[in-house]
Amino acid sequence: MRLLQFSTSHYCRKARLALGYKGIEYRVENLTPGLHALKLKPLTGGLTTLPVLLPEESGQPEVVADSTRILRYLEKYAPDRSFVPEAESDRRQAWLLEDWLDESIGVATRFVYYDYRAGEGKSIDPSLSSQLVINVVRRQYKITPATVKLASERLENALFILSIWKERPYLVGNSLSVADIAASGLLSPLALLPRYRQNYPWLFDKIEEIHRQCREPLPPGF
Ligand SMILES: N[C@@H](CCC(=O)N[C@@H](CS)C(=O)NCC(=O)O)C(=O)O
């Protein structure tokens, strides 16, 4: 299999965690931001976001675009090491959390992270090229002080909900699920922000543990 990705994207990390948990062999192909759309549009029928998985196997789909679809596909492709709970109520809950983390919380993480990298956290990489990319991303996603404030309030609520992790090993049921994978990947950029490291140490312990279970190297900040 081949995973088309941006090496630093937290959505691509989510897909790699899933591939790693299933123990599937794959190669990554890093695309260049900006030029990526030219390659993706004809492959995906118009979608321009990464990750995109190319199974490259006969009898399998040619393209699986979007991290949630990739998780669903991998569960069908390799059902043995399952990350979807068996009990129906747990299954519902796991996919509900996965979708919320993907559509709302992953976006909020992006806002808070890029705002930090352009301000207080500029010293992480003050180079012109890095700051240029950060500013393009901020413009592309309309990251402004007002939208960052909303995003950080949304993250605070998310961390209240995810504090289930303080009491139980997994967000849903008794084994790792798509909810744990999504949360671990999509919140991982916060590891570079001292205020999250200080206030939510349990979050980063859990992200670290899930990366270990998924055999995925830890992101910057650990
Ligand atoms: N819901 C999508 C979101 C993916 C996403 O937002 N990817 C970003 C990188 S973190 C991207 O590819 N942006 C480029 C673009 O929008 O053209 C998924 O889960 O795959």
UniProtKB/TrEMBL annotation:
InterPro entries: Glutathione-S-Trfase_C_sf, Glutathione_S-Trfase_N, Thioredoxin-like_sf. Residues 1-82 form the GST N-terminal domain. Gene3D superfamilies: 1.20.1050.10, Glutaredoxin. PROSITE patterns: GST_NTER. Pfam families: GST_N_3. It comes from the Bacteria. This is Glutathione S-transferase family protein. It comes from Pannus brasiliensis CCIBt3594. The lineage of its organism: Bacteria, Bacillati, Cyanobacteriota, Cyanophyceae, Oscillatoriophycideae.
